[in-house]
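Lecture 7 notes: from sequence to structure.
We start with the chain below.
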Amino acid sequence: MKYSLLLLIIAAFTFAAFTLPESRSSAPENRKTVMAGGIKFDKMRLEKAMEEAKASGKMIFIDVHTTWCGPCKEMARTTFQSEEVGKIFNKKFVNLKIDAENDADGKDIVKTFNVSAYPTLLFLKADGKLAKKLVGKQSEEKLLSIANGL
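Predicted structure tokens for the same chain:
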């Protein structure tokens, strides 16, 4: 009887050990894809980004997103991780990722640039004036085309 109970306990732990981690790791929210060469987003206020853009001769790229936005998460996992996109954006822009609801500049950026859907991608001149605005999930090709045209 003790032997059967011990085998049952070992079987249960073995089953749990082999099934639980796999089911957790297959959930898209828990997976993190790290690819070398993607866009490097800076964590700074818009005012500081404008100073840096002026000093470096770059423009500003802002990914305005929210924590609940599915297409925002998809772009973060795919398009923004592209080595080719990263190469161009890191060279030409000061890159910011702004949570519209939680970051310090979020509400001001939403109001100033009339953001009503997510993701909204803003391309600003160094002085903070809008050069281009894209709404919704964008492909790698579209981002590269816009960036190369600015």
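Points to note: The longest helix spans residues 2-25. Helices lie at 2-25, 46-56, 70-77, 83-92, 106-112, 140-149.
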